[in-house]
Amino acid sequence: MKPVLAIGLGNPLMGDDGVGCIVAERLVTDARLPEYAEVICGGSDLLGCAGQMEGRDRVVVIDALQSDTDPGNVVRLDGADCGVEERQDHAHHLSAVQAMRLLERISSIRCTLLGVSISSATVGSSLSPGIEAQLPAILEQVLEELGRHPQENRGLV
Amino acid sequence: MKTVLIEHLARVEGHGGITVELEDHTVSKVHFEVFEGARLLESLVRGKRYDEVAPILSRICSICSIAHSLTSLKATENAFGIRISSQTELLRELLYLGESIQSHALHLFFLAIPDYLDSPSAVALAAENPDAVRLGLRLKKLGNLIQGAIGGRAIHPVNCVPGGFGTVPNVDQLIELRGALTEAMHDCGAVIELMASLPAAEFCHDDTVYAALFASGPDTYYAGDEVIVASDGERCTVRAADYRNLTNEKSVLHSHAKHCSFHGRPFMVGSLARLTVNPQRLTGRLAEAMKRLQLKFPAANPMDNNKAQAVELVGDIERAGEIVEHLLRDGVQDERPAAVPVRAGTGTAITEAPRGLLVHSYTYDAGGRVTAADVITPTALNAASMEQRFRRVAEQYEGNEDAVLEKRLGMVARAYDPCISCSVHLVRTR
Prior knowledge:
Chain A is built from four helices and five strands.
């Protein structure tokens, strides 16, 4: 098992919402990807990836973030930095931040979230020109995050 | 007049709400409003070839994708007169058990139990009772493992085809399942103890009509062709092909889900109905679990459906273990799916999805293409019963605090484990 796991999240059929999955797809074939890192696409269900997170030193989650900053801007948040809505409206799955918080509370899994700022998510299978143009820079920042030396070993669930 | 309104039921799948109107403490109106948009999936399969139908209709639900896929295949096989092998029957039962395990674990630990402990969500519950959430996740993972091994992946199976399976599990996969199921047997005691430790939840009592598939053997989810409707000590039988005699659907103005009734009375489907209709199952560990949870039949409290799901979890894990042992002992034959003799005709199947009875019925033309399709889900079957229960909750609440009434209504709704999106299958335009 590789010690670092990168998980791209999002729905590629909802335009820029799928940017996490697109980044994951590009990373898999990127020669700069460190050998110690594995990349998967988690769709829209981070909790469903819990089994694959177990035993990793680090988990980096890449997801779209609706914010006022420029599209393509990447925000780095550790799990504890994320505000989280405790109320749960839906049955199928939790939001990515809720899933991160839940895993923190019941396991030693700790995630770092790289939020890619998007301005809208609408039906469509391609990224907006603005996000597409920013993809090289987004990949750079994800690779930089994956290149960080593990600060400490994280144990099993 | 006072109105108690739940605009959006939390921790259920889909979009629905409850409206209760009271005049001088007398309940004047109760509506369970399903405002989920029309799905139109039955229309989507019209004109599709027989082997395209199950993969499309499994998309009705991601939690019940196995149930929709296997029920669809059974209906298609009935239309063409296909007999599947005993090995396929066993593997489909195992796959169905995997879905039931993951679905019950999701419902109990993530949607229902937080209610009892005054927790707004599983995320909050994880802070207060992390062991409970870990237990739920372990069981959900077990269900997904079974679904992945037999169905090809955890959600929306790709390995189930008319007449059988694309591939059969290998010995290594079965050994992995045996190990996971053996570990899960140790978790069963914790599930029952946790459920037994929850505060009592008795918000309404009502004579209830139950409907479930009659299980003549150990398979309580997939085999069988007869639905038993049980009430007041009487049992009526409805065959799958005559399902309209059971459902008697009618549109209601306030909901996109139709209402069903049998002999004029709404009925309840799901875990509690399955155990009520099939008391012969309740031996050994299941009987012990029933006793520990003080679950008795006929049950008049809809909240008992949560206890019934816990009992079924124990039975499902035990039965899945038996099947895997059987497959390892006798070996799995690398058999091909049964031949498909395409012909014109109608086929209907009723099975037990985790939430209750599920009907798929198709008519095919001579070329094996769908000319008509009808799918009725457990939540559609339960919608009228849920509304009746909401009325009883409001009638039997003697307090005057809207928040308490709202919480009780929400808990009873969640006890039905509704999948509201699935319940919408036709909207009549006016």
